[in-house]
Amino acid sequence: MIQRLLPLVIFAALGVLLFVGVRMSGDPNRDALPSPLIDRTAPAFVLNALHEPERSVSESDLRGAPYLLNVWGSWCPACRDEHPVIERLAESGRIRVVGFNWKDEREDALRWLQRFGDPYHEIIVDQVGRTAIDWGVYGAPETFLVDAEGVIRWKYIGPITDEVVEKQLLPTLARIEGSQ
């Protein structure tokens, strides 16, 4: 009799564990990956510009006003999903949006921008991916808010949505602009 009930008991126990796991996954911070770079100076870099490959851009060239560093690649489907949001944000003039083209072929990136639009104030290229490692990039898309002094104030992993812009990015931007 016990041998017949044992599979049922195991199945019920697994069902309870699954239910508890699903209930706990309702935590809004469950996908958050804390970045050790928040409130630290952005890592140093010197990368080539996408549109002018002979020209170098460094992190110090971007200082002076807050900017949004958006990591993207032509190979990234989620980057295409977030692109209209990035375009609206750039068009608003609220903040400079800097593209960080990651592990991409130049021709593919240029073709992608021609097809979907180029909202970026500047685009830097990290074809090898070494600078992305310094920034703690897990994958594309990722977005960083950097203040005028070059300090990283916010990071978002995944495609930016209008809700993320309104509820997270803009309040953080207002807070850093108010403190400078």
TrEMBL record:
Sorted alphabetically, the keyword list is: Cytochrome c-type biogenesis, Disulfide bond, Redox-active center
Q: Which InterPro entries match?
A: Periplasmic_diS_OxRdtase_DsbE, Redoxin, Thioredoxin-like_sf, Thioredoxin_CS, Thioredoxin_domain, Thioredoxin_ResA/DsbE_sf
Cellular location of this protein? Cell inner membrane
Family classification: Belongs to the thioredoxin family. DsbE subfamily.
Of the GO CC terms on this record, one is: outer membrane-bounded periplasmic space
What organism does this protein naturally occur in?
A: Alkalisalibacterium limincola
Name used for this protein in its record: DsbE family thiol:disulfide interchange protein
Q: Which SUPFAM superfamilies match?
A: Thioredoxin-like
PANTHER family with a match to the protein in the record: THIOL:DISULFIDE INTERCHANGE PROTEIN DSBE
Say yes or no: keyword Disulfide bond present.
Answer: yes
GO terms (BP aspect): cytochrome complex assembly
Domain Thioredoxin, chain residue ranges per copy: 36-175
